[in-house]
TrEMBL record:
SMART domains: LCCL (SM00603), SCP (SM00198). Its main location: membrane. The keyword Electron transport does not apply. This is CRISPLD2 isoform 9.
């Protein structure tokens, strides 16, 4: 995000980070617009504003986007998620309208970025981007320069906003905005100041440490992430605990693949049944009982099995299951297979979706699938893709793997969509597609055309009959045939009009969908 300002006096935008000095950034003063955005009718000294969902999404999306594009590349950068407790603590501090970090009791365990401005409306994303833009003054310390402590090299007023945003092990964020009718900012009283607070956990900006490790993206992720990667970030897949029950996690299409931790063999979590397990059973202990996993943990696939009348206990692989003699929902566990693919294989070819569930293997994709032409390796859709898409090229488009190195991919089936919208992401242009095939459209047009012709012939036949009846003096039947011919002609006209409209509209819609 960038901001271009010409001929504007730099006023009214400030940022603050622990142990650093603040600086001014450009802004302009359109006070009415700002107040209408943030302020209510109360005459209090503070006006608290809850972060709306759209702002949360913008803040979180921008943080993860910026974290995924750091240079040099990060090998251990973790995906960031929103934390409600951090949001509450940020809101509590923002409501104090005090231009300094706090509260002191929390600063030992959280990181914090502060921003304030007055004047026209600025979105939270503007503040976040401005923090990140300190990168222009920051020089990354390579391991060879850290002996053992890394040098801090910042050629500008400060770089600690940037380093907190890209601190690899910081994986939670919560922010708040508050409009302070009066706030003292470095000795000056600001009226109607918009105070923006973001709290981070675990905290970053440790003196003498680099913000992240340099290397191939996701090559040094913590084991708890299960080897999953998204947009160059360590992404936590369907990670569960030893006591996680199937019924608590397996809901609808999310019933698919889970990452179990180590140490579940001697856990006290209960399981019911043998081969088929009751839905209140521990996912990970059921996998050990079945023999798919051992105490080291790993990936397991879950499949719903409907209701069964009872569950029988047994002892297998060091795990004792229990009996339950009443009908209940059940599930099965299965081993996750790994399969090497080329750049062209589609989901429809590898594992066509069949209800109640289809488990595709974990796929290992080669490098450089992005470079394959679309007629050999097509991609249809964005976020959710058609099963006729190339799996590995789609994974590059989604940011799950790097084009330069390839990697492992998991595919989850979801309900079919009527349309798929194309987009350009990570150097791959996906295509749009409609679920109505061309032959269906032409069949519809042909049917309308034939119906129109047939109705015309029928109307003509009734007209001839009406003439014949009239010639022999049977006026009653002649009138009836004439009336029928009239109505059939009307229907033939309607069908003809519909066919003409479709002949005009369908090419237009096709252009709109595929352009």
């Amino acid at each position: 995000m960038s901001c271009v300002l010409g001929g504007v006096i730099p006023l009214g935008l400030l940022f603050l980070v622990c142990g650093s000095q603040g600086y001014l950034l450009p802004n302009v003063t359109l006070l009415e617009e700002l107040l209408s955005k943030y302020q209510h009718n109360e005459s209090h000294s503070r006006v608290r504003r809850a972060i709306p969902r759209e702002d949360k999404e913008e803040i979180l999306m921008l943080h993860n986007k910026l974290r995924g594009q750091v240079q040099p590349q990060a090998s251990n950068m973790e995906y960031m998620t929103w934390d409600d407790e951090l949001e509450k603590s940020a809101a509590a501090w923002a409501s104090q309208c005090i231009w300094e970090h706090g509260p002191t009791s929390l600063l030992v365990s959280i990181g914090q970025n502060l921003g304030a401005h007055w004047g026209r409306y600025r979105s939270p994303g503007f503040h976040v981007q401005s923090w990140y833009d300190e990168v222009k003054d920051y020089t990354y310390p390579y391991p060879s320069e850290c002996n053992p402590w890394c040098p801090e090299r910042c050629s500008g007023p400060m770089c600690t906003h940037y380093t907190q945003i890209v601190w690899a092990t910081t994986n939670k964020i919560g922010c708040a905005v508050n409009t302070c009718q009066k706030m003292t900012v470095w000795g000056e009283v600001w009226e109607n100041a918009v105070y923006f607070v973001c709290n981070y956990s675990p905290k970053g900006n440790w003196i003498g440490e680099a913000p992240y490790k340099n290397g191939r993206p996701c090559s040094e992720c913590p084991p708890s992430y299960g080897g999953s990667c998204r947009n160059n970030l360590c992404y936590r897949a369907q990670v569960v605990r030893c006591d996680t029950k199937m019924k608590d996690r397996c809901k609808g299409s999310t019933c698919n693949r889970y990452q179990c931790p180590a140490g579940c063999l001697n856990h006290k979590a209960k399981i019911f049944g043998t081969l088929f397990y009751e839905s209140s059973s521990s996912i990970c202990r059921a996998a050990i009982h079945y023999g798919i996993l051992d105490d080291k943990g790993g990936l397991v696939d879950i499949t719903r099995n409907g209701k069964v009348p009872f569950f029988v206990k047994s002892e297998r692989h060091g795990v004792q299951s229990l009996s339950k003699y009443k009908p209940s929902s059940s599930f099965m566990v299965s081993k996750v297979k790994v399969q090497d693919l080329d750049c062209y294989t589609t989901v429809a070819q590898l594992c066509p979706f069949e209800k109640p569930a289809t488990h595709c293997p974990r796929i290992h994709c080669p490098a450089h699938c992005k470079d394959e032409p679309s007629y050999w390796a097509p991609v249809f859709g964005t976020n959710i893709y058609a099963d006729t898409s190339s799996i590995c090229k789609t994974a590059v488009h989604a940011g799950v793997i790097s084009n330069e190195s390839g990697g492992d991919v998991d595919v989850m089936p979801v309900d079919k969509k009527k349309t798929y919208v194309g987009s350009l992401r990570n150097g791959v242009q996906s295509e749009s597609e409609t679920s109505v095939p061309d032959h269906v459209i032409w069949s519809l047009l042909n049917t309308l055309f034939m119906n129109s012709c047939c109705l015309g012939f029928i109307a003509f036949a009734y007209s001839v009959k009406s003439r014949d009846r009239k010639m022999v003096g049977d006026l009653t039947r002649a009138q009836a045939y004439a009336s029928t011919a009239k109505h059939v002609n009307i229907w033939a006209l309607i069908v003809g009009i519909l066919m003409t409209i479709l002949l005009i509209i369908i090419p237009v819609l096709t252009f709109q969908i595929y352009r």
